[in-house]
Amino acid sequence: MTNQPAPAFEPPYLMAVFSNVRSSDASGYPEALARMNEIVSANPGFLGHESARTPGGLGITVAYFRDHEALTVWREDMEHRAAMERGRTDWYDSYTLHVATVERSHGFVRNG
Description:
The protein is an alpha+beta fold. Helices cover 32% and strands 33% of the residues. The protein has one domain: 2-Layer Sandwich (Alpha-Beta Plaits), CATH 3.30.70.100. It has helices at 29-41, 68-76, 78-91, and strands at 13-22, 46-53, 58-65, 92-102. Strand 2 (46-53) and strand 3 (58-65) form a beta hairpin. It is globular and about 40 Å long. GO terms for molecular function: monooxygenase activity. It comes from Streptomyces subrutilus. InterPro entries: ABM_dom, Dimeric_a/b-barrel, Jasmonate_Hydroxylase-like.
């Protein structure tokens, strides 16, 4: 994890915003998270992601995909589907997922 935002990508592209509150059961979570990062990073249409968690426990991950096909490949991956089910049964007290098309994107990096 870095302390930098994801770069601005060339629009249009999709963003999937996953907001969650984790449960107290973290068994297997770090390993599953590492594996999910491996899988999604191998998707040619995956552009990147960024995550943050508040001290109160709200987590937000924003993942960026080139198109609907790339997002569908991610959503339908069998290991990802198993992790989603485990999330509902063990790892999350609540979550929401929002998917949107990004029409405009720009960024700024201070030099020096």
